């Protein structure tokens, strides 16, 4: 059973960079034709896709976030990461990592990131 | 980006009655090369991550009760709960992955009347 777990600071200051890591267990991040994605959900609001990394290493990002987002992978640690620069209060949300194969099938529990000074 | 619009935003249904949620995409999410709709449905209960219910617009995932069904093609899709149970209280989202800019509907909150 694949498990994903997000980790990273719960509080980030405005204008700084949000950095989160997703650790995958129960399977290899390098195997299969999977997308490894980051999504977020502001408190009380809907889901927003941030971006994906395909197992080949190709990345895709939401256009409105593209200038600030980087998704990368560390296959040796079976992890993938999210960096979001120049954050504002609008980036406060519950951040999820997930595996997509014909739909997001496996999710982490999410980690709340608050942007505040 | 493809805009996904769900209706209604919320609905209250009596136990045992039918609940119907609609999802409309601003352009077709049907790949004619394989005749598949790149459209899925999720259920999200409070405090939990979303759960994949339906893939390819109409394929129920393993373990999902058969009271859940998906239909539609192209730009218009429907999620139906044939007989609402108390455990179905949740917010439901459609999502398209037709192109490289994946998008979700705004969600539909289902409650018991």
Task: Explain the layout of strands and helices.
The complex is a heterodimer of chains A (117) and B (113).
Chain A: E1 3-7, E2 11-12, E3 18-25, E4 35-41, E5 48-54, E6 59-61, E7 69-74, E8 79-84, E9 93-100, E10 104-107, E11 111-115
Parallel strand pairs in A: 2-11
Antiparallel strand pairs in A: 1-3, 3-8, 4-5, 4-9, 5-6, 7-8, 9-10, 9-11
Chain B: E1 4-7, E2 10-13, E3 19-25, E4 30-31, E5 36-37, E6 39-44, E7 51-55, E8 59-60, E9 68-73, E10 76-81, E11 90-96, E12 103-104, E13 108-112
Parallel strand pairs in B: 2-13
Antiparallel strand pairs in B: 1-3, 3-10, 4-5, 6-7, 6-11, 7-8, 9-10, 11-12, 11-13
Describe this structure in words.
The complex is a heterodimer of chains A (117) and B (113). With 117 residues, chain A is mostly beta strands. Helices cover 0% and strands 52% of the residues of chain A. Chain A is built from no helices and 11 strands. In chain A, the strands form 2 sheets. In chain A, strands 2, 4, 5, 6, 9, 10 and 11 form a 7-stranded mixed β-sheet that branches. A 4-stranded antiparallel β-sheet of chain A has the order 1-3-8-7, with no helix packed on it. In chain A, a hairpin with a 6-residue loop joins strand 4 (35-41) and strand 5. The mean pLDDT of chain A is 96. With 113 residues, chain B is an all-beta fold. Helix content of chain B is 0%, strand content 51%. In chain B, a hairpin with a 3-residue loop joins strand 7 (51-55) and strand 8 (59-60). Classes of the chains: A mainly beta (117), B mainly beta (113). Chain A binds chain B through residues 46-49, 52, 60, 62-63, 96, 98, 100, 102-105, 107-110, and chain B through 1, 40, 42, 44, 49-50, 52, 55-56, 61, 91, 93, 95, 97, 100-107.
